[in-house]
Inverse folding.
C-alpha cells in the first residue's frame, strides 16, 4: 500500500518518499519565499518522473504550498499586495516575451546552450553575491561599532535623483519604500523573461531583486514573493494541463500533503531567523544547485542520448 | 464440427506461417499466460506474470516480452564550446518497441540465444528500426538508447531465468515469472515463446498481454486527456483548497509551531 500509480507520469512512486519530498520543499518555500521548482523538478526526475510532467505537476503543488505560505505570512503582516501585483503583472508580461524568445532560439538552434549558460550564470551570480553580502552582514552584526545601515542609505541617496523623476510614484506601505510603480513592473518583466528562458517560477531571482534592488525588508520579501508565486503557478498549471496535458494530479496531491504543512512550519522557522541568516542559507542552496549543474555540464555523460521533451 | 476443426486448423497454420516461415514441425510448443489482462489500479506498483508451457525435451526455449512499437525522439549529447556536455543534436529512432525483455533458460549462457538470425536480442531489433537523420550512427544511438531503457527497467536480458521441468514422454515443461515494471504503460504487448534446436528456431507461439488503467488512474487519465481545461482548473482549485485548509488548521492549533 506504500506505492501509488501516477496515471499521467506513467509510473508508480513510493507515497512516503513523495510526501517527504513535498514536506522538504514546502519547508524551503515557507522559509525563503521560493517555489522550489529549481530543486523539485530534478529530484522528481530522479524518481523516474518525465521532466515535463515533473515541472508541470510541481507548479500545481506550488499553488497549494504558496496558498498555505501566503496565508501564514499575511497573518504576520508580511505581504505587500500592491508590490506583489506590480511584480506579477511584470512577471506575466516578461514570461510571455521569454517564451517567444525561446521559440525563436529553438528554431535557430542553440536554445539549450543559452538555457544552460543562463542557469549557471544566474545561479552562480545571484548565489555568490547573496552569500558574500550576507556574510558581510553577519560579520557587521557581531561588531557593533560599524553601522550596517550606512551603505544602504548612501546607495539610496545616490539613486534618488533619477528614480524620483520616474512617473507613477507610489508609497508601498509594507515594503517601506516610496518609488515609481514602473520600477517593480520593470524588474518583474526582467525576472519573467529569465524565468521563462530557464523554465522555472523565478522565486530565487525575484527574492534577490526585492532584497537588493527594491530594498524591501527580508520578511516582507518572503511573503510578497509567495503571493506572487501563487498566481504565477495557477497560470502555469492551467496552461500546462490544457495545452500539454502534463499535470499529474495524483503526484501533485501527494506533494501537496507534504508541502502545505512544510510551508507552515517553514514560515515559523523563518520568523525566528535573522535576515542575514536567511539570506546566507538561501545563497548556499542556490550555489549548491549551481555546482551540481556545472558538474553535469563538465563531466562526460555515461549515456550519450536523452529522451527529448517527454510526451 | 468438421467445419470448425478445419477452420481452427487454418487459423493455426496461417498464424504459424505469419510468425515464422521457417518453422519446423518437430512437435508442439505450448505457451500459457496466467492472465492476459493486467489492471493498473490506484496502488499498482508493477507486478509479475507467471508463464508456463511445454516443448520437446531436446529443445530450448526463449521467452520475449515486447511492444508496442513507437517513434522515439532523442537528443544526442555532444560538446559545446569544446568543454560543455549538452543535449546537442536531434535524432529519432522509428519503429522501436517501448518494452523489450528477453528470458533465457537456465543451464546455458544467454549469448547462445542472443542472435539476430534467431530474432532474439537487441541486435535483432536494430534491423526493423529506422533512424532519422539517416546519417546518424544507428547501432551506436540504439545502443545508448538501450542503456537508457535498461536503467528505467523496460529493456532487459534476463539470463538463465527459465526453469525446465523433468522430461516425460519426450516433452518437458517450462516456467518463468515475467517482471511487469510500473513503467510499462497501458497498451497491448506480445509474449512470445521460441523453441530452438541446433541454432535454429523450430517453433514460435505468441500471446497478447493487455495492460489497462482502472479505477482512479483511469478516471484521472480520461479527465486529463478528455477535458483538459476543466482538469487544470480542478487541479488549481483543489491545491488552493488544500493550502487554505492547512493554513486554517495551523491557526486553529494556536501557534503550536
Amino acid at each position: 500500500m506504500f506505492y501509488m500509480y501516477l496515471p499521467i507520469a506513467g509510473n508508480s512512486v513510493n507515497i512516503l518518499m513523495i510526501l517527504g519530498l513535498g514536506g522538504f520543499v514546502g519547508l524551503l518555500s515557507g522559509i525563503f519565499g521560493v517555489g522550489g521548482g529549481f530543486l523539485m523538478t530534478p529530484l522528481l526526475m530522479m524518481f523516474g518522473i518525465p521532466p515535463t510532467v515533473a515541472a508541470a505537476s510541481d507548479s500545481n503543488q506550488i499553488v497549494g504550498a504558496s496558498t498555505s505560505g501566503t496565508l501564514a505570512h499575511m497573518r504576520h503582516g508580511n505581504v505587500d499586495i500592491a508590490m506583489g501585483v506590480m511584480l506579477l503583472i511584470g512577471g506575466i508580461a516578461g514570461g510571455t516575451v521569454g517564451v517567444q524568445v525561446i521559440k525563436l532560439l529553438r528554431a535557430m538552434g542553440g536554445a539549450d546552450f543559452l538555457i544552460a549558460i543562463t542557469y549557471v550564470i544566474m545561479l552562480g551570480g545571484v548565489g555568490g553575491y547573496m552569500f558574500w553580502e550576507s556574510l558581510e552582514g553577519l560579520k557587521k552584526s557581531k561588531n557593533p561599532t560599524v553601522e550596517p545601515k550606512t551603505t544602504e542609505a548612501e546607495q539610496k541617496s545616490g539613486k534618488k535623483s533619477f528614480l524620483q523623476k520616474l512617473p507613477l510614484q507610489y508609497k508601498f506601505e509594507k515594503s517601506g519604500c516610496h518609488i515609481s510603480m514602473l520600477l517593480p513592473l520593470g524588474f518583474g518583466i526582467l525576472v519573467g523573461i529569465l524565468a521563462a528562458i530557464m523554465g522555472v517560477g523565478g522565486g530565487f531571482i525575484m527574492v534577490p531583486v526585492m532584497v537588493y534592488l527594491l530594498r524591501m525588508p527580508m520578511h516582507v520579501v518572503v511573503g510578497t514573493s509567495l503571493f506572487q508565486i501563487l498566481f504565477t503557478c495557477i497560470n502555469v498549471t492551467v496552461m500546462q494541463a490544457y495545452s500539454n496535458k502534463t499535470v499529474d494530479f495524483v503526484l501533485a496531491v501527494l506533494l501537496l500533503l507534504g508541502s502545505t504543512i512544510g510551508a507552515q512550519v517553514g514560515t515559523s522557522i523563518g520568523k525566528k531567523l535573522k535576515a542575514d541568516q536567511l539570506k546566507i542559507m538561501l545563497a548556499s542552496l542556490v550555489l549548491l544547485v549551481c555546482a551540481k549543474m556545472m558538474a553535469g555540464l563538465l563531466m562526460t555523460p555515461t549515456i550519450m542520448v536523452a529522451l527529448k521533451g517527454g510526451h | 464440427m468438421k467445419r470448425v476443426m478445419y477452420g481452427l486448423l487454418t487459423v493455426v497454420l496461417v498464424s504459424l506461417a505469419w510468425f515464422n516461415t521457417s518453422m519446423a514441425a518437430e512437435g508442439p510448443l505450448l505457451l500459457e499466460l496466467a492472465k492476459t489482462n493486467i489492471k493498473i489500479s490506484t496502488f499498482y506498483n508493477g507486478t509479475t506474470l507467471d508463464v508456463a508451457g511445454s516443448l520437446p525435451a531436446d529443445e530450448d526455449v526463449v521467452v520475449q516480452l515486447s511492444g508496442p512499437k513507437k517513434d522515439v525522439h532523442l537528443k544526442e549529447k555532444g560538446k559545446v564550446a569544446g568543454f560543455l556536455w549538452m543535449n546537442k543534436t536531434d535524432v529519432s529512432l522509428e519503429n522501436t518497441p517501448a518494452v523489450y525483455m528477453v528470458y533465457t533458460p537456465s543451464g546455458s549462457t544467454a549469448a547462445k540465444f542472443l542472435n539476430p538470425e534467431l530474432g532474439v536480442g537487441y541486435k535483432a531489433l536494430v534491423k526493423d528500426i529506422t533512424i532519422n537523420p539517416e546519417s546518424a550512427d544507428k547501432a551506436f544511438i540504439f545502443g545508448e538508447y538501450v542503456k537508457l531503457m535498461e536503467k528505467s527497467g523496460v529493456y532487459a536480458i534476463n539470463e538463465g531465468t527459465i526453469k525446465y521441468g523433468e522430461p516425460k514422454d519426450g516433452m518437458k515443461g517450462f516456467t518463468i515469472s515475467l517482471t511487469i515494471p510500473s513503467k510499462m504503460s497501458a497498451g497491448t504487448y506480445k509474449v512470445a515463446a521460441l523453441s530452438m534446436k541446433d541454432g535454429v528456431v523450430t517453433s514460435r507461439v505468441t500471446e497478447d498481454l493487455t495492460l489497462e488503467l482502472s479505477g482512479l488512474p483511469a478516471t484521472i487519465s480520461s479527465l486529463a486527456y478528455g477535458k483538459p481545461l476543466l482538469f487544470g482548473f480542478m487541479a488549481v482549485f483543489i491545491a488552493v483548497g488544500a493550502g487554505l485548509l492547512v493554513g486554517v488548521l495551523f491557526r486553529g492549533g494556536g501557534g503550536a509551531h
